[in-house]
Amino acid sequence: MKLKKSTHLAWNILIHSKLRSWLTIIGIVIGIASVVSIVSISLGAQQQVQNQLGNIGADILTVSPGFSRAFFISSGFVGSGGKEVVQMGRGNSLEQSSSSATQKNLTINDINTIKGIQNVEYVMGEISDRETVSYLTKSATLGITGVDASTWKYVTTDTISSGRFLSVGDSNAVVIGQDVATLTFSDIPLNSKLTIDGKTFTVVGILSNGNGIYIPIDQARNMFDVGGKDYQFISVKISDVSEANATVNEITKMLMLERGEIQASQQDFTVSNPAQLQSTIEQTTGMLALFLGAIAAISLIVGAIGIANTMFTSVLEKTREIGIMKAIGTKNKDIMVIFLINAGMIGFVGGLGGVILGAIGSGVIGSLASGAAAGGRGFGRVFGSTALTPALLIGALLFSVIIGMIAGAIPAYRASKLKPVDALRYE
Amino acid sequence: MKEEVIKIGNVWKKYDMGSADPLVVLKDINLKVYTGDFIAITGPSGSGKSTMVNIVGALDKPSWGGVYLKNRNISDLRESALAFFRAKTIGFIFQQFNLIPTLTALQNVMLPMEILDVSEKLAKEKAADLLTMLGLGDRLHHKPTELSGGQQQRVAIARALANDPEIILADEPTGNLDSHTGKFVMDFLGKLNKSGKTVILITHDLDLVKYASRVVHIKDGRIEKGVKK
């Protein structure tokens, strides 16, 4: 029998089994939708982590105030250029915040100490805060970072899209990220005037991406409520990436010495290695995805059992028809193919529904998560973006068809092995 | 001289009944069927005539003995070869019509041809011709449930003729029909026989044996001797 005919007969079985098939299909829809949502959210989270942390650069270490014994992300991954507080302790549990020794800002002494360490190329202190930014008639509260114009271009992985970086001697000059120029405000050109906290700045450069706003640190100091010589972050560019961990340890040791502290419990700063952090977060999101995926897989297994059950019932119901078909010459192989295609169709229709529902679901979950993370904090922002790739959608559909066919294999085999004379007698 | 189409030689059929004694349904059956024969197999209910027909039609296998199609033993063939044999050589007509309920009359008649990979176009043409010949030209796209018993049996006859088989095996073909339709079916089987088809009719209705050229009576699993037309 030709495949076209087998497919037609399989379709015939599907459309004439009505409610039972559709209930089974709903089971598969739910299973596939769960898998698609979870995988797309996990992929999106991994991409988000890569996008945000990938910009930091493996050769840039950050020193931030406060020390945490547990791993946490204190202000999310907003902005670009690795200026966020990203703290990493020795544990592997995830927490929103954790214990710390008395938190103090970093000082010029810290910068000088770090400068003297081997493998350190450039060191830059910076401060940041949120201020009201206005352009023409539009205003927004955005993060402003004060940077040292002499070293900034060496310790950032940002690139200039138009204009230039800040230069020594710049006054009332600002460099803005692409998103600020095009999304937050509408098309800010170079040399236009921005008002930050009531002061007017000239846009001298626009970065290729991100939503950062950078001004000379001295002007930032006047604007923010930060101590005279204090810094909120220190960025350290190293020359040999393979020595990153050793350099982290050396910086920690020297800063402790400089503070006259010996006990680790007194540590009031954190030195982080972005590459290591990235790998840890990727590992964590990967494990989380695996865990959630396993839960989704359970619903898919239940769906598959539903298919097998439907197929067994279908074979039982169609026993007499199988007998008729065998009597008029249908081979065992053809009967098996018809029922396998029927099971595959249940999987396909269920998979199609699941992919559509999963795509909608991941979009809804993504927007809910990003809505919850509107403050820009933590994992909400990470899970606020989803990745629906064609490979994921096609893969899920294919997976559903295969699951259907596997679940239908035994019933189909049983149907094919029915003796025609027995099947014809079946009432 | 007539050619031997089917020969049943020393066929026994028994069913194991677990701890009870096996049930022997056919006992040393011997029968030769020649081209152009119209054989009526008669016998009371439970005599074994249906089992015998199942074995002749390759739907079942004998416990002992051989079934020969043109001197070739088919009782040892694999299921796929038997399926091909059934599709090509035998046209079944059942008492219960046995049409596929989800297919139209036309699709039911096309099915045996499509099993043998006849093109859809050709199968459709031939199926429509057969149904029209049987007076169902205006019922091609009706499903079995939309047809009367007589119409369903005519669809079943068309299906039996789809692959132009040598043998028509009719198992109580008038059992579910009124006398008028039953007569139509029997007359049609008579016409088919006259056109050269070998017809094997299973019936318990002795009125129908008049259509047959030979009568085989089965009782208690054995062919009774001395039965003649």
Compact summary:
The complex is a heterodimer of chains A (427) and B (229). By secondary structure, chain A is of the alpha+beta class. Chain A has helices spanning 3-16, 18-54, 108-115, 152-155, 178-184, 217-223, 244-259, 274-317, 319-327, 332-372, 378-382, 390-416, 420-425; strands spanning 60-65, 71-73, 86-87, 94-95, 120-135, 138-147, 160-163, 173-176, 193-196, 199-207, 213-216, 233-238, 269-272.
Describe the protein's architecture and organization.
The complex is a heterodimer of chains A (427) and B (229). Chain A is elongated. In chain A, the strands form two sheets. Chain A has a six-stranded mixed β-barrel with strand order 5-6-11-8-10-9. Chain A is an alpha+beta fold and 427 residues long. Chain A has two domains: 3-51 and 279-425, no CATH class; 105-267, no CATH class. In chain A, 53% of the residues lie in helices and 17% in strands. In chain A, strand 9 (193-196) and strand 10 form a beta hairpin. The mean pLDDT of chain B is 91. In chain B, a hairpin with a 2-residue loop joins strand 9 and strand 10. By secondary structure, chain B is α/β, with parallel strands linked by helices. Chain B has a domain at 38-47 and 79-223: P-loop containing nucleotide triphosphate hydrolases (Rossmann fold). Chain B is globular and about 50 Å long. Chain B has a six-stranded mixed sheet, sandwiched between helices. Chain B has a four-stranded antiparallel sheet with strand order 2-1-4-5, with helices on one face.
